[in-house]
């Protein structure tokens, strides 16, 4: 089997190689997965560059997110059987075979689309956790987000809808408006819309109770201006690479709270049983099509470097996937 | 009696006048206070200018903070007797007489210094509330603050000490270092000290669990860089008039929370019994000298405008007070 192994940090061409490796047989409590698909996320690119907040010991098979079919089961495993689909919880999915503890996988329901399931681990729990972890929201409340056409943004829209929340979505390109409305967004505007003045009209006279920011800079401030007093403003990305600039009055007089979300912290702080409950819910939403991410392109593993280049481009229509069933 | 009444918002000379008024006799549940002293706070100046977050209906006797002696008691008042000292909870203290509900005053213990008691309402509860309301602190934990020689900063130091907390204090002028150490500060440094590099050494290898910011701009960021992951950074003032500039990594990877504190919100959100408990504790600390603010100058009420000019200067050695016992 082939796996993408990182031997240093820097340009992918120089540090990331497809190495031939022997699949390991599963020990007690372990399963071996024949991997089907994996996704390429911004965090993967940052890990290759060495700029991510937490870096692996080298050499390392990388890839945060993927899905496989159980090919062999070790002694004592009761949660998975040969033929089941499962998504590994730990990094290392950019390879054709993985052997890991059964309890470090998410069991997936029969009938789920493997390509969609290969995107369950990062964006859907990010959206779910941000909608649950920062504000006590009630049906009818508004959530405002930028980068609404990103993987997380597209997960926020249907998950918020399933909770009875309404979403005000900010995008850069006007051609995305109809697409997000079709996905269930309540309102979609472009970055040029000043939410301090236009927000209340857009939200039927209300202010938002939660802001989700993946951009930073002026876009982050625009979201803050749409918030009700005392509301949280959560940063989970920094696409503009600009810091947040927060007028003191938003902190002192409006009592806004500026916080951050990092999925690795959520995994570290959330009990395993709660994680399982969340992923079972998200898997059900993927299987029934409620959660669905457009796929921009799928590359065989041998074209890894072309796939990484494609994933690094600014204007994609969806995720870039690796097909791991062919070498 | 004379009282300082605001007739508009703008330059104090034009909008604030000393008006002769008749003292009102106390109705049921009310007391009449002969006012002894009042303080001038930055919020008072901002109200006169019309730039504060909440403005009174005009004309209004202003003055957030003062102390008086009970001169008459209405029917049914059991908490105060003639001769007792009390501090009004509501604005309107820049006058020689006040009549208000007994339950809208803080009863003060006999033997308390009236000049010090005239500064109980704003800075001490701000310091107390910020030390209790944002982080679960344990004895030995470090608190980092800028503007450490301000009224709030000087209250933070002894209150933190009484809780077993340690303080790292940032000041602008090196000549303040010894003064704050004498007040019980554990460490005092000037604004030029880079806390990202120097912080752990200053705090015996630890990071701070709470930052209190009254400056904004680069000073606010400097405090943030001294914080342990997941800690709150609380803004209650903006002396530099510069917004906060927050690198995204402090939010996402370090999980810092940037919040704000406004005393009016604390009064609105805190049950009266809890407010009484806090003020009884603070009054005891003022009476025994644990809480003590230097007084820069005291002006008779007729010199109100000179007092306001003095209070607006940058480099004072302490608070400016109004003596209300003389006209």
What would you say about this model in short?
The first copy, chain A, is of the alpha/beta class. The first copy, chain A, has helices at 12-15, 42-49, 114-117, 123-133, 151-162, 177-183, 195-202, 217-224, 248-252, 263-269, 272-287, 304-312, and strands at residues 2-6, 16-20, 30-40, 60-61, 66-73, 85-88, 97-101, 105-108, 142-145, 166-171, 187-190, 210-213, 232-235, 244-246, 257-260, 295-300, 319-323.
Characterise the protein shown here:
The structure is a homodimer of 327-residue chains. The first copy, chain A, is built from twelve helices and 17 strands. The first copy, chain A, has 327 residues and is of the alpha/beta class. The first copy, chain A, has two domains: 2-119 and 293-323, Alpha-Beta Complex (Quinone Oxidoreductase, Chain A, domain 1); 126-264, Rossmann fold (3-Layer(aba) Sandwich), CATH 3.40.50. The longest helix of chain A is centred in the last third of the chain and has 16 residues, at 272-287. The radius of gyration of chain A is 20 Å and the shape is globular. The first copy, chain A, starts with a strand and ends with a strand. The A-B interface holds A 53, 216, 235-238, 243-262, 265 and B 53, 216, 235-238, 243-262, 265.
SSE topology sketch:
The structure is a homodimer of 327-residue chains.
Chain A: E1 2-6, H1 12-15, E2 16-20, E3 30-40, H2 42-49, E4 60-61, E5 66-73, E6 85-88, E7 97-101, E8 105-108, H3 114-117, H4 123-133, E9 142-145, H5 151-162, E10 166-171, H6 177-183, E11 187-190, H7 195-202, E12 210-213, H8 217-224, E13 232-235, E14 244-246, H9 248-252, E15 257-260, H10 263-269, H11 272-287, E16 295-300, H12 304-312, E17 319-323
Parallel strand pairs in A: 9-10, 9-12, 10-11, 12-13, 13-15, 16-17
Antiparallel strand pairs in A: 1-2, 1-4, 3-5, 3-7, 3-17, 5-6, 6-8
Helix pairs in contact in A: 4-5
